[in-house]
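S.,

Sequence below, as promised.
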Amino acid sequence: MSEWPSLYLFFFKRCLFYMELQNLTHVSEFLLMGLSEDPVLQPFILGLFLCMYLVTILGNLLIILAVSSDSHLHTPMYFFLSNLSLADIGFITTTVPKMLVNIQAHSKSITYAGCLTQVSFFFLFGCLDSLLLAVMAYDRLVAICYPLHYLVIIKPHVCGLLVLVSFFISLLDSQIHFLMISQLTFCTNVKIPNFFCDAPQLLHLACSDTSIDDILIYFTGAIFGGIPISGILYSYTQIVSSILRIPSTGGKYKVFSTCGSHLSVVCLFYGTALGVYLSSAVSPSPQKSLVASVMYTMVTPMLNPFIYSLRNKDIKNALWRIINRIA
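The prediction came back faster than expected:
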């Protein structure tokens, strides 16, 4: 008989647990903790990231405008570059405006639907960036290793098809993550230690079993991230092999300079992307993850236009022609 009170207590706790679990399934909002909770720093963070966002939008729009308005830049390489700039605009717009609005409104909330939308678009544009960089590496491979066949292989309709396929693959990646996060059960008053809804951090906050989701997120990362990286590495292995066969130093430099900007962007993009996931997997420190996230989501899209415009004479000349027309 003495066991009955403990048995009642056990069933009572289980009932409370299942009642709470049913309520948790329909979480209405999340809390984005942002970069800092210090109210003194909020105006500084708002001003800094607003400037970074505007510079990113302006820089990438200028690249798109230069490519579309200058007939000298109507080539496959610059077609891919303009699409990369468009993807960068979408990538940074997915996360930063919500953070700026929250700082201005002294709020940390984001709706459940808004969080899922952010996850979906984050992976859509992030994967699209990765695939476009791989496509651009392939373009450089054909241009340097098979220059006589370049116009035959890289035709306009092939360029459009490559971008379209990249988009649909990215859409598939985003929908996989969207469905995965939408099936999770979350606790009440969920606090996300970041300025946007990051899928790995949402998995850590889930109350339901996420063992399969953890495997799935690393598997999709290996597939949708590993294949483009492998393509880029293969392309540059072939490019370096071709460059080394050029006898003159000046010739080697001239050929390699055509892909220097792309290589810089690749290193910046994948370096910061690996930093995000390695910091979240190896170190539990939220500050390190935040720094890596800022570099990945904001600094990389902001620097891309500068890298291409400063290292590329064609882009610089096109931008000067636009400025002269306005003046």
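The first strand starts at residue 29 and ends at 32.

Coffee later?
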